[in-house]
Design brief:
The complex is a heterodimer of chains A (86) and B (131). Chain A is of the alpha+beta class and 86 residues long. Chain A is 20% helix and 28% strand.
């Protein structure tokens, strides 16, 4: 049985948005793909962000997630630099 | 535990927040912390800091931090206001207050909330100067 690809939306915040040149982007990943797979896809498509990969924080919805999180259809992923509140 | 959280572009009104303080007779400590915008950033003069938040996640993360504070100390209330947008030098970007029975608890909880905020809450700042 052929599984459909998974579509997610990726939001960029702070100077990640400037480096990405956009606030958000739609991405398609293979079924069973994890957050790390998506990040590889994004960093190869948006090379300006690639040097910041180690410091990048990731969330799905309002929850922090690690690279092994399995993406689901319609997930809202956020990618941003270390936080600086206060 | 009573909790109030405001993340907005409104100027922080410390007087009004202080006047709204409510403490029951068993509470002996109210610790208040105000974070102000400094006039320099990395040694260079600035006019202020511009704050941006991923607001739904920031609110969620703040409440998770409040949950932890509540489980560690017998707090009666936590109130926190974080300003967004342009905040000029000398104005407050953060105001928070913790009410607890004893000062050790209130100081510790206040420090905990601010430290965890700086680690987890998706808010960012960038300096601006006046042309």
């Amino acid at each position: 049985m052929l599984h459909p690809a998974v579509q997610v939306r990726v939001h960029f915040y702070s100077f990640f948005r400037d480096l990405a040149g956009q606030a958000e982007v739609s991405e398609t990943v293979a079924p069973g793909a994890c957050l790390e797979d998506l990040l590889q896809q994004i960093f190869s498509r948006l090379p300006n962000l690639a040097p910041l990969r180690k410091s990048a924080l990731t969330a799905v919805g309002v929850h922090y997630q690690n690279g092994d999180y399995i993406l689901k259809e319609g997930d809202e992923v956020s990618l941003f630099p270390p936080v600086q509140g206060g | 535990m009573r909790r109030e959280l405001i993340i907005s572009g409104e100027k922080i009104n410390e007087q009004s927040l202080t006047q709204a303080r409510a403490m029951s007779p068993g509470m002996g400590a109210a610790v208040c912390f105000v974070g102000m915008v400094r006039g320099t950033e990395n040694g260079s003069p600035i006019a202020g800091l511009e704050y941006e938040a991923f607001k739904p996640m920031a609110e969620h993360q703040f409440h998770l931090i409040f949950d932890q504070a509540q489980s560690r100390w017998p707090l009666e209330s936590v109130r926190l206001v974080h300003r967004l947008g342009r905040v000029p030098v000398g104005e407050a970007s953060l105001w928070m207050e913790v009410v607890a029975p004893r000062r050790e608890q209130a100081f510790a909880a206040c420090q905990f909330v601010v430290s965890e905020m700086k680690r987890l809450v998706p808010i960012w700042k960038k300096p601006f100067t006046l042309a």
